[in-house]
Amino acid sequence: MKPAFLIAATSSGCGKTTLSLGLMRALTRRDVRVQPFKCGPDYIDTQYHRIATGKDSINLDLFMSSEKHVKDLFGRFSESAYVSIIEGAMGMFDGFHGMKGSAADVAHTLDVPVVLLINAASTSFSVAATIYGFTRFCPDIKVAGVIFNRVSSSNHFAFLQDACKATGVMCFGYIRKNESLQTPSRHLGLSLDSLSGIERFIDAAAAEVENTVDIDCLLEATVVDCPACSHVSSEKRKLTVAVARDEAFNFIYPANLKRLNADIVFFSPLHDKVLPEADLVYLPGGYPELYADALEDNREMRTAIKDFAEKGGKILAECGGMIYLTEEIDGKKMCGVFPLMTSMKKARLKLGYRKVKFDNFEISGHEFHYSDIIDATGLPSVAQQYNIRGEKVATPVYKYKNVFAGYTHLYWAETDIFKLWE
Question: Is 319 a catalytic residue?
Answer without folding.
Answer: yes
